Amino acid sequence: MRERVLSGMRPTGALHLGHLLGALQNWVVLQGEYECYFMVADWHALMSEYEDPKEIRRNGEQMVIDWLACGIDPEKSVIFRQSDVPAHLELAFILGVLTPLPWLERNPTYKEQLRELATRHLTTYGFLGYPVLQAADILLYQATKVPIGVDQLPHLELAREIVRKFNSLYGKKLLEPEPLLTQIPKLSGIDGRKMSKSYDNAIALGDEPEAILKKSQRMFTDPLRIKFSDPGHPDQCNVYSYYKIFAPAKKEEVYDYCTNAKKGCTECKTNLGSVLLQFLEPIREKRNYWVNRQKKVTEIIEEGKRRARSVAEKSMSEIKELVGI
Ligand code: TRP
Ligand code: SF4
Q1: How are beta strands 4-9 and 78-81 bridged, if at all?
Q2: Domain-by-domain residue ranges, the chain?
Q3: pLDDT digits over 198-244, tens only?
Q4: Architecture in CATH of 207-287
């Protein structure tokens, strides 16, 4: 039997290049090796978006379209929505009663999010329990491998601690999940900060060609290269870091014309725009295919619900049996 993988994303807005490089490309590879469950984490989205949750459902559907466009294959993987499987909340409750508060309060990701999303009023009961629900997501499918970014490591460590406590209380049963960290090139947003929808610095997978070109033109460059005749420092230029990722064959050429002031930044950014257009073209095509087949997308999510439920319900009845409830 193949090991199981589970991962999820919160449907809080359009997916961008950061999601593709940081997660989706890896998910696509994992599909060949593992039995994969990819989850639209809509309850997790509600935790931060509860004041204005109207977009969560539509974002979830759009996110599945992005996944499909990037090569997540519903024949190989189970694509499902967390809220379609009630067992997630049931197990989160059971795990919640045995999770000591200090484990949650010391979580660095939680503290960072409180700071970053200060306007969202996240000092809530639900948000503190974010990693408890995440542990439930993983344990319901007995996933042994969880592909995540480093920011999610504390959550996975907590899931492991929760498993150990569960097992010691109720007799060993649940498996401890392990993180699958991917070696990913760091991709900044067009302003050099972390790529994020909330910074308005992201290139979305569904961006129109004109938007991609415009954003490329807006990218921050080497601040020391002011005039055309100033030699540039590619290693301090965000545009160059994009070349390294998306057009490695061109990087020597760019390095040369930049450091010798043979071409200007405007031209360099225009060329990068074409590189990104070409890179995203196949994704855009597949996206359009699915956008025009909304009914099929709904069917995929329905099928995911059926398959996820059957695994989750079985786990849930075993767990209830163990707990004695
Ligand atoms: N917390 C994850 C994130 O923000 C999303 C997520 C929810 C998740 N449940 C999960 C990831 C289970 C891995 C496993 O990125
Ligand atoms: Fe950056 Fe290109 Fe300008 Fe050099 S020429 S500073 S690599 S944008």
Answers
A1: unpaired
A2: 4-187+294-323, 207-287
A3: 789 999 999 999 999 999 999 999 999 999 999 999 999 999 999 99
A4: Orthogonal Bundle (1.10)
